[in-house]
Design goal:
The chain is α/β, with parallel strands linked by helices and 896 residues long. The structure holds flavin-adenine dinucleotide. Residues 26-32, 49-52, 57-58, 60, 62, 67, 69-71, 76, 122-123, 153-158, 201, 401, 404-405, 441-442, 452-454, 457 line the site of flavin-adenine dinucleotide.
């Protein structure tokens, strides 16, 4: 629609009294448009207020040369209406800004949306009127608005960040911002141009500006990873998949991690050879697809620094190959963040542009900008005279546009700015406690910028509008999240932040690009599909975490936290639930062993370490197998005697191999895993006596095994934790061997089954109460159960080796583990405890599946090294940590 027409429709002639609507929407981009459509269909009176002169949002404002999407347009589209989906065909794999803007205009026309949009109208303040139960919005143009519900669809990347450089006002040439590019375009031909910034907008525009300008000087503070877009027609394979079954294609996107229909990778980097990894990388590089290269190389690329570093190095090679001048290539090469932790960019000829004679790169890390002068830019090293300065300095992302409406005053006169003083606090990224009937689309705490936003926006809008309908139908007038739900979400956000490497970079995801902004990872890193299922769970559990009120004192509040499990534990348990497995105890011992054997076969054994040696040792009553896991470093190393889990019935010396390997890497110590005998063939006290005998033998033969002579350490998980604990008591009582420390992970310590954790976690967390009953029955008759050799909590617990006891919140064995730790501590034993929140019994041993278990294993490794008298270096797997976590992470850290 021409600007003049839009202006005529703008609201300066609107009445001075407030415009009354059910729902006011701020913004008319992807989100605002779909909201209008859905709200109207749901029968709400509504208005959208938009600062711009027309629809489009991002695509209205960002008209700089080369502006395009970086998610393939086949995916970056509305999907709510199959007819709309077929009515529009994109011309390119990555459409240009004009084409996307035309598309959004086409959508606005198709659903006649403009008639409810007040353009050139900025919302400046919002106040919750408690008595009227309505929001009162102030605008800079025309009538204020009074609405029951206030929805901010103001965009994550819509508040450009002002330049932080002195002297801009003195500059006599032209200044442009990529995020506010003039609609009529800019002629840069023959001009000396400076571009400040090398984020996505800069990387898209620099090659085109260089083609026009007499000279282009790029001022770069932080280099970014960029990959060739390989633009052109949409790739054949995706088109074919899409055309063959559009509904399935869209559904797969909705359930995926990033909102683009790619499967989850399962192969980890170290399972592939160098050649295989290179082949995968080259394919991804050639594919020119951000989501592909971010998700499809290997499963650990986004979660593990080693898996990620391989990708980084391969990309660095590409940069060196593309840029002729080695110094420029070095300056363009990122070294300060994992690949993907900062949004990588898609480019067309970006790196090659630096080979042009009319392009200069200024590395601001070496020569910071001092000031902008009348004639150009002055750094510590030079004065660069220019005619034009282009600021490509990015956005005050995620919260900038929300906070720009100031104040937003909620219940009791609370201002959102104050509530968010230490970082954004939300429930689901959609709502805020104390701000009734207030919603944000793609707010902080939602997947937003870590996803294909078209998919996330549709999901948010559908969820919000469906809730508003349900609220109205049930006769309620207000909806607001509870404090507990919001705190729970913040903690879940913090847990999720440990899943990926995003926390290790200073980026606009963490607010680090804006001086003074509170640092913390703002987008939800748990994935689009899981997020969707959580939102649905909130609904199916009776609006969990929301307080609803209505006339006559009507109220409903189903308080609680929607996700208490660690995000990856939740995924594992959901997956197990879908498998519908029979209870293990129903399989019989042989069947259960076969099942566990099969299960373990499909699991990677773990990363490379030094030698792995099998042998047998003389047990209490005949030979016992063992497996030695040695570090790759020169020995001899301190020896840890390890006992596997499996309820005294299942498993063997190899069954916890991934855990042993991981701990060997982290501790630099040697693990000897013992194959003790199992029930029901060998009942109590066989496992205990085998464990003790094996420890004694290993201690006596440490040198032969390649370990360090002297005291050993013992460790064990579950029933293995039981054996480790019992071994320490027996060693104390039977005159050795000397044990320097014990690591007990979710140990069985007592035969009492009425502690709260047995009831709270009786079912649903894989290790069930009934499975524990079965293990106990097979191993130990009721008469023997109070013997300290199976219930060490019943024994003497003084004078034991130093201990580290790890327990998991969602584990029947939690309370007995805690009780044992407390009993030892009360008896004077130095004890450290890890009470792992959100974890289940298998969290620490499912090494490459439960990524959030890493932090716990790091603590365990640190403890073992302390017990062995070694200096505290352990391999964390996230050694680049710069200490930036989401605000809620502090809560999580405190909680554990
Ligand atoms: C250059 C660029 C490329 C991008 N490419 C992709 C991509 O490929 N894939 C992807 O998923 N995402 C991409 N994004 C992110 C993009 O912002 C979203 O995909 C999407 O367009 C957001 O839509 P929205 O409606 O939520 O917000 P926006 O499009 O940002 O719209 C918000 C609107 O709200 C208006 N507004 C804000 N505050 C007020 C106020 N107080 N009063 C009145 N109006 C207000 C703004 O003027 C704006 O028009 C890109 C972003 C940029 C900047």
């Amino acid at each position: 629609m021409p600007e003049a027409m839009v202006a005529a429709r703008a609201s300066d002639t609107a009445p001075k009294s407030a415009q009354q609507v059910d729902v006011a929407v701020v913004g008319a981009g992807f989100a605002g448009l779909y909201l209008l459509h859905r709200l109207r269909k749901a029968g709400f009176s509504t208005v959208a207020l938009e600062e711009a002169g027309d629809v489009g949002g991002t695509w209205y404002w960002n008209r700089y040369p080369g502006a395009r999407c970086d998610i393939q347009t086949i995916d970056y589209s509305y999907t709510f209406d199959p007819e709309l989906d077929t009515a529009w065909t994109w011309s390119e794999k990555y459409a240009t800004q004009p084409e996307i803007l035309r598309y959004l205009g086409f959508v606005a026309d198709r659903y006649d949306l403009r008639r409810d949009i007040r353009f050139k109208t900025k919302v400046t303040e919002a106040r919750w009127d408690e008595a009227a139960e309505r929001w009162q919005l102030t605008t800079d143009n025309g009538a204020p608005v009074s609405c029951r519900h206030y929805i901010m669809a103001t965009g994550c990347l819509s508040a450009p960040k002002p330049p932080e450089i002195d002297g801009v006002k003195d500059f006599k040439g032209k200044v442009y911002f990529t995020g506010r590019w003039p609609h009529e375009g800019v002629d840069l031909a023959g001009k000396r141009v400076a571009v400040i910034g090398t984020g996505s907008s800069a990387i898209q525009s620099i090659p085109l500006i260089a083609e026009q300008a007499a000279h282009l000087t790029v001022f770069q503070r932080t280099p970014n990873f960029a990959l060739p877009a390989g633009n052109g027609p949409a790739p054949e394979d995706r088109r074919t998949f899409f055309e063959s079954d559009r509904a399935a294609y869209r559904e797969q996107a909705r359930q995926s991690m990033a909102g683009v229909p790619y499967p989850q990778q399962t192969v980890v980097s170290w399972q592939l050879s160098d050649a295989e990894r290179r082949e995968r990388f080259e394919r991804a590089w050639a594919a020119g697809d951000l989501v592909h290269i971010l998700t499809q190389l290997w499963a650990d690329q986004a979660v593990d620094v080693d898996g990620n570093k391989i990708v980084q190095d391969l990309i660095r090679e590409k940069i060196r190959a593309a840029v002729r001048d080695p110094e420029t290539a070095a300056a363009l090469t990122p070294h300060d963040h994992p690949f993907g932790a900062k949004r990588p960019c898609l480019d067309t000829n970006y790196y090659a542009t630096y080979n042009r004679p009319n392009v200069t790169l200024v590395n601001l890390r070496q020569e910071p900008i001092k000031t902008i002068t009348a004639s150009g830019i002055s750094t510590n090293g030079r004065n660069v005279d220019v005619d034009v300065i282009v600021f490509a300095t990015g956005f005050d992302a995620m919260t900038g546009a929300i906070r720009a409406v100031h104040p937003i005053t909620g219940r009791g006169g609370k201002s959102l700015t104050d509530v968010w003083a230490h970082g954004p606090q939300t429930y689901l990224g959609l709502t805020v406690e104390g701000f009734p009937n207030f919603f944000m689309i793609t707010g902080p705490g939602s997947p937003s910028v870590l996803s294909n936003m078209a998919v996330s926006i549709e999901q948010h809008v559908d969820w919000v509008v469906d809730r508003l309908k349900a609220l109205r139908d049930a006769g309620f007038t207000t909806i607001e999240p509870t404090e507990m739900a919001q705190a729970g979400w913040n903690r879940h956000m913090a847990d999720c932040s440990m899943l990926t490497l995003h926390r290790l970079a200073n980026t606009w995801y963490t607010g680090a690009n804006v001086p003074g902004k509170v640092h913390g990872l703002m987008p939800y890193t748990g994935g689009v599909g899981p997020y969707r299922s959580i939102c649905d769970e909130v609904t199916s559990r009776g609006m969990l975490g929301f307080k609803l009120t209505g006339p006559g004192g009507a109220a409903q509040c189903n308080d609680g936290e929607v996700v208490r499990l660690q995000p990856d534990v939740r995924l594992v348990l959901n997956l197990l639930a879908t498998l519908n497995l029979p209870p293990i105890e129903s399989m019989g011992a042989a069947g259960a062993r076969a099942f566990v054997g099969e299960f373990n076969k499909g699991r990677p054994a773990g990363r490379l370490i030094g030698d792995i040696v099998d042998g047998t040792l003389p047990g209490a009553d005949g030979p016992l197998p063992y497996r030695v896991f040695k570090p790759a470093t020169p020995g001899p190393h301190p020896v840890v005697v390890y006992f596997h889990g499996g309820g005294w019935v299942l498993g063997d010396e190899q069954s916890d191999e991934p855990f042993c390997r991981d701990m060997v890497r982290r501790t630099g110590m040697m693990f000897v895993s013992v194959g003790y005998r199992h029930a029901p063939e060998h009942r109590f006290p066989t496992a205990a006596e085998d464990g003790y005998a094996a420890t004694r033998w290993i201690a006596e033969h440490a040198t032969e095994l390649g370990g360090k002579p002297g005291p050993v350490l013992v460790a064990g998980w579950s029933a293995g934790g039981n054996i480790a604990a019992v071994t320490c008591q027996l060693a104390r009582d039977r005159g050795g061997p000397e044990i320097a420390g014990q690591l007990l992970i979710c140990p069985v310590t007592d035969c009492t089954f009425d502690r709260p954790s047995y009831n709270d976690n009786a079912t649903g967390y894989f290790l069930t109460r009934s499975l524990m009953y079965w293990f106990w029955d097979l191993y130990c008759s009721p008469a023997d159960r109070t013997d300290p050799r199976v219930s060490p909590l019943r024994g003497k617990v003084d004078k034991l080796p130093r201990a580290f006891v790890a327990t998991c919140e969602f584990d029947p064995l939690r309370d007995e583990g805690v009780a044992y730790a407390e009993a030892m501590a009360a008896a004077g034993v130095p004890v450290e405890q890890l009470k792992a929140h959100g974890h289940f019994h298998s969290s620490f041993t499912m090494v490459d599946v439960v990524i959030t278990g890493v932090a716990g294993r790091v603590q365990m490794a640190e403890a073992l090294r302390r017990f062995a008298g070694l200096p505290p270096e352990v391999s964390r797997g996230d050694d680049h940590s710069q200490g930036h976590t989401s605000p809620g992470h502090k809560i999580a850290a405190a909680a554990s």
